[in-house]
Amino acid sequence: MNLLEYEAKEIAKKYHIPVPPGVLIEEPGQVQQAIDELGLPVVLKAQVPVAGRGKAGGVKLARDPDEAYEIAEELFEKEIKGYPVYSILVEKAANIQRELYLSFTLDRANRRVVMLASGEGGMEIEELAKEKPEAIIKLPIEPEIGLKAHEVREVGKKIGLSGNCLRSFEQIAKSMYKIFMDYDADLVESNPLAITDQGMMALDFRMIIDDNAIFRHPEFEAARERELRGAEKIAAKRGFFYVELDGDIGIIGNGAGLTMATMDVVNYYGGRPANFLDIGGGARRERVKEAVKVLLENPRVKVIFVNIFGGITLASEVALGIVAALQESPVKKPIVARVVGTAEEEGRKILQEAGIPLFESMDEAAKEAVRLAKEVA
Amino acid sequence: MVVLVDENTRVVVQGMTGRYGKFHSEQMMKYGTKILAGVTPGKGGQEVLGRPIFDTVKEAKEQFPELNTSIIFVPSSGAADAIIEAADAGLKLIVVITEGIPVHDTLRAVRYARSKGAVVVGPNCPGVISPGKAKVGIMPHQYFTPGRVGIVSRSGTLTYEIAYQLTKRGIGQSTAIGIGGDPIIGLDTVEAVKLMDKDPDTDLIVVIGEIGGDAEERLAAAIKRGEITKPVVAYVAGRTAPPGKRMGHAGAIISMGAGTAESKVKAFREAGVPVADIPSQVPDLVEQKLKEMGKL
């Protein structure tokens, strides 16, 4: 779950990481007050829970109050990567001498934490990784020992820091690592971490918190919902995974791998998946019903393809869920089902009685779904 | 010999008294897996499926010194503690079924268990099965059949799917390991494939990968370096998955431009590993390889 920049910066401040003075506004009319407090020039930054905001036009510099007001108006009307802008962080523009990059994330392959640093901040790290991988320095961290100060200084020297800057870099890195551990973060990132005439400062600060650890950070419960769009909200509430795609064949599977494979098979036979929907492990009828309803109510979905291989999930529960959704929803759409695994006999019987065509093979079911989608179109 | 589990596997079930723990313990016992005890804190002294329940793994181990394996069904908030407990009790194989464990917890627990010499499989995995011998997991075992093809998979249900398709084609399996779909896991793809590479009862290894991380690329590199001598056949799920979106599994996300299906397929092909476009092509590729080897 992505925190908004101002939320992440509140945390940064608590850990003594310098950030530019800023004011959060919720309508263009508040921009003047922010300027009165901060002085000019200011940077207006749209608060959206997604990376790559700058490129999408969500960050702008204003030199006078009129320009600031216009930009605020424009940003509030904008959608950035599909997210409406509900607030803008107005910050005093910093006098930047140099931009650095610093982040902490998980090193999956080596089961540890890794610090990434670069003397070339500002540009997106993905691009930097592609164009100049040698400019990114990786420092592996054993979580039992934690961040080693001397290693941080060595990295700092490698990216060209000395004197006070080197000391600040060490302090900021230590704080960021502490935030990473304290907040169950998947990512803590400052890009750019800038050397300014006011010293070293996190101009941008980003945090992604592990969704599975929200129970330890209940203050972000609401923040998680904000990140979801449309039917993803229902999905999160009901405990299934949903990602919208741009095709017309609705996909329901159990297990991420099988659901992705189902999408791949539909695609292979010339169809286009409308979504990824994984009902998750051990889904019971109520959850399945809500999942099917999401696809029944999505106008782009023309056909629904349910592909279940029961393990921890009982095929009979899935079947009961499908039937219940069809009974409750006023919308009718063709459904193709393929159900095998735990309690498969019972599941098949329930679906057969409801008149839903059943297939033994995933390929045959996919072909039928593709055929039906073309027929409906 | 088979990989990880066999006739000598003696199991304690952590979280045996819960709905899933109980259901799957019963399934495992029906399959012939020797479950000796269960552990649920606060329920020591009770009995489930004719097996004694203990408050701690240590007590279970004292009562049954032959215990060597744990399977964990406890809820996500307590799963890391359960892993550490099993490792401290000296169990050598710890299979973690639980999904949704905070990744920092997994990091801590898996590192600790490995430092104690335990093999952790999972979390968020279907477990391990050596068809006809033992199952320490939740897979519907009727779709698996004894044979000489190993399966290593990041996915649960997709493992069943591939085993089912192989079985229908008359190709049995030596061992199937579901290594789990989380970003941090115990036994990883390369380690699991190496175990099978050393197993005299496995002729060929099917690897089922998916988007996210670089496990498949690392395996391809190991194959290129000649570290794996047996033939490998692969499938990578998620060719149609968009970047930046988590596809169910916490680990299945294309991020920072890495972890795409294309990159994995390319790495495999460059290492000489045939890659199926869809699951149903896996049995074809396996059959072809086995014929080349004169095993079919």
Radius of gyration of chain B: 19 Å
Count helical runs of chain A. Answer: 13
For the termini of chain A, the CA-CA separation is 37 Å
Which CATH architecture of the largest domain in chain A would you pick? 2-Layer Sandwich
Number-wise, the strands of chain B total: 14
Structural class by SSE content of chain A: alpha+beta
Quote the average pLDDT of chain B.
94
The gross shape of chain A turns out to be: elongated
Helix content of chain B: 25-40%
Gyration radius of chain A (Cα, Å) is 25 Å
Domain module tally of chain B: 2
List SSEs of chain A in N-to-C order: HEHEEHEEEEEHEHHEEEHHEEHEHEHEHH
The CATH class of the largest domain in chain A is identified as Alpha Beta
Q: What is the number of helical segments of chain B per DSSP (H or I, 4+ residues)?
A: 9
Oligomer: heterodimer
User: Into which percent range does the helicity of residues of chain A fall?
Assistant: 25-40%
Q: How much β-strand is present in the residues of chain A?
A: 25-35%
What's the CATH architecture name of the largest domain in chain B? Answer: 3-Layer(aba) Sandwich
Low-confidence parts of chain B, pLDDT < 50 over ≥5 residues? Answer: none
Question: Overview of this structure, please?
Answer:
- Chain B: InterPro entries: Cit_synth/succinyl-CoA_lig_AS (IPR017440), Citrt_syn/SCS-alpha_CS (IPR033847), CoA-bd (IPR003781), CoA_lig_alpha (IPR005810), NAD(P)-bd_dom_sf (IPR036291), SUCC_ACL_C (IPR005811), Succinyl-CoA_synth-like (IPR016102).
- Chain B: Its EC number is 6.2.1.5.
- Chain B: One of its GO terms (cellular component) is succinate-CoA ligase complex (ADP-forming).
- The complex is a heterodimer of chains A (377) and B (296).
- Chain A is 39% helix and 25% strand.
- With 377 residues, chain A is α+β, with helices and mostly antiparallel strands.
- Chain A folds into three domains: 153 residues, D-amino Acid Aminotransferase, Chain A, domain 1, CATH 3.30.470; 73 residues, Dna Ligase, domain 1 (2-Layer Sandwich); 145 residues, Succinyl-CoA synthetase domains (Rossmann fold).
- The radius of gyration of chain A is 25 Å and the shape is elongated.
- Chain B is an alpha/beta fold and 296 residues long.
- Chain B folds into two domains: 112 residues, NAD(P)-binding Rossmann-like Domain (Rossmann fold), CATH 3.40.50; 154 residues, Succinyl-CoA synthetase domains (Rossmann fold).
- In chain B, helix 3 runs parallel beside helix 4 and helix 7 runs parallel beside helix 8.
- The chains are: A alpha+beta (377), B alpha/beta (296).
- Chains A and B meet through helix 4 and helix 9 of A and helix 4 and helix 5 of B.
